[in-house]
Write a structure and sequence with these properties.
alpha+beta; single chain; Heat Shock Protein 90; 3 domains; rod-shaped
């Protein structure tokens, strides 16, 4: 199954948005990585500076004063202890060792190179009370359970690496510091996400407008080509826009002009031939009247009458292909009632159900010829005609149903072809020329609509015309 969109507009939008989203995700990943590195460096500098300040403060105090001040200063995210044994230097081969070496260099920068500084990193462990494992796990003395470093509890909840730094004071006392980043620095950067979201929304809107603007000429060209099949003399396309669009519009207008010229010349030739045939037919009719054999005279008269009917139908068909008639409001109700009265005078039965809500913008003579052909066919082949008018805001639908035997399904489309006649109930003996339905179809399509034939469920053949109002 093909999951790609079918329209060019959708495919261009998919390509643009896919590329944009990929670029934004890569940018965000790089940003998060760089941001993490910068936050780690900034946090390390701040922690190193604070440790250095505490060390200088402790150097100026007596041991008793130090114990008091340590209890005040020891609070997350930095805890201080004075009763911890010496730490072993970390291994520099792994990432933790490299980070510890960087933190050591920061401490030495703030404290001076003469200090004893040992720094390690511990991953907070799962045991109650928190704290790192291995060589940096804090050791508790007897009766000092309450002195468990608060930082260890904090680190267990927040996760991540914890710096364990041990600095020698001037009197040789070892001060141990446990420090880590604040949780707030590890949260998602919502301001950056909001900025990326706004940028993405703006680019999406601009992309949609740009793609629609770029593909609109294709839609205009497709609409014009579709309308050309119904109205060969439609207004030409505007030759404006980019060079490629202007070139395509000019080629389309040239093609339309050539087609219109060809069809007009062909129609004029055929119409002239059909018209000129009336003169020899009239002469033949006059000469047939001079025949002494009554039976032969009748045969000649019937053949000439059929020829005249064919010529008249051909002229009507060719006129139906010509859209030179002006479009104006047509009172469909009055038109149908007029045709109903005319056919009833000649013995036909026509009933009308429903009414048009208002005038229909069309070509009066062409519509009259279309309705007349359909009604005459219904009466000729189906004894009566039932007209059903269903009007709406977008289309006017007119159905004409007869009471005849209907048509085989495979012939419902063929009967619209010029000069096509169905054997049996619809044949030459009834006087038909095979152009009535072709004329009706041309007129309906000339108005932008469509006509279909179908066998009604209750019997008879039904012609359904849908004429657009917009």
């Amino acid at each position: 199954m093909n999951l790609l969109p079918r329209s060019l507009f959708s495919r261009l939008v998919l390509v643009l948005l896919g590329g944009l989203l990929t670029a934004q995700l890569l940018s965000f990943a790089i940003h998060m990585h760089d941001r993490g590195e910068l936050l780690a460096q900034a946090s390390g500098m701040q922690s190193a500076q604070r440790i250095a300040d505490i060390v200088r403060l402790l150097d100026t105090m007596t041991p008793a004063e130090r114990n008091k001040i340590v209890k005040v200063l020891s609070a997350p995210p930095l805890t201080v202890r004075l009763d911890r044994g010496p730490l072993s230097p970390p291994e520099a081969e792994n990432e933790a060792g490299a980070r510890a070496a960087l933190f050591t260099s920061l401490l030495l920068r703030y404290l001076g190179d003469g200090r004893l500084v040992v720094v390690g990193m511990a991953q907070p462990g799962p045991y109650p009370g928190g704290g790192g494992g291995g060589m940096h796990r804090p050791q508790r003395g007897d009766g000092d359970a309450d002195l468990t470093p608060p930082m260890m509890h904090y680190g267990a909840r927040g996760g991540g690496l914890t710096f364990v730094a041990q600095v020698g004071l001037q009197d040789g006392t070892l001060a141990t510091f446990d420090t880590r980043q604040l949780p707030a620095t590890e949260n998602w950067p919502f301001r950056v996400l909001l900025s990326i979201g706004l940028l993405l929304t703006a680019v999406i809107v601009v992309s949609l407008i740009a793609v629609r603007w770029a593909t609109r000429p294709l839609k205009t060209l497709a609409d014009a080509a579709d309308e050309l099949g119904r109205n060969i003399n439609r207004p030409p396309l505007a030759e404006t826009g980019p060079t490629e669009v202007v070139s395509a519009a000019r080629a389309f207008n040239t093609m339309q002009s050539r087609l219109a010229t060809y069809l007009r010349e062909r129609t004029q030739v055929l119409a002239a031939m059909s018209h000129d045939l009336k003169t020899p037919i009239t002469r033949l009719r006059l000469r047939a009247e001079l025949l002494e054999d009554a039976q032969l005279r009748t045969k000649f008269g019937n053949d000439l009458q059929e020829m005249e009917a064919m010529v008249a139908s051909a002229l009507d068909f060719l006129r139906g292909m010509d859209n030179g008639e002006t479009v104006r409001p047509v009172d469909v109700n009055a038109l149908l009632e007029s045709l109903q009265a005319d056919l009833c005078e000649t013995g036909g039965t026509v009933t009308i159900e429903g009414r048009a809500m208002g005038p229909y913008p069309g070509r009066p003579q062409a519509l009259k010829r279309c309705f007349s052909n359909l009604l005459e066919n219904a009466i000729k082949y189906g004894r009566s005609a039932q007209v059903i008018v269903d009007d709406g805001a977008e289309r006017l639908q007119i159905s004409i149903r007869d009471e005849g035997p209907g048509l085989p399904p495979e012939q419902l489309e063929k009967v619209f072809e010029p000069f096509y006649r169905v054997e049996g109930s619809r044949n030459r003996d009834t006087g038909g020329t095979g152009l009535g339905l072709a004329i009706a179809k041309n007129v309906v399509e000339l108005h932008g609509g469509h006509i279909t034939l179908r066998n009604h469920a209750a019997g008879g053949l039904e012609a359904v015309m849908a004429l657009p109002r917009t």
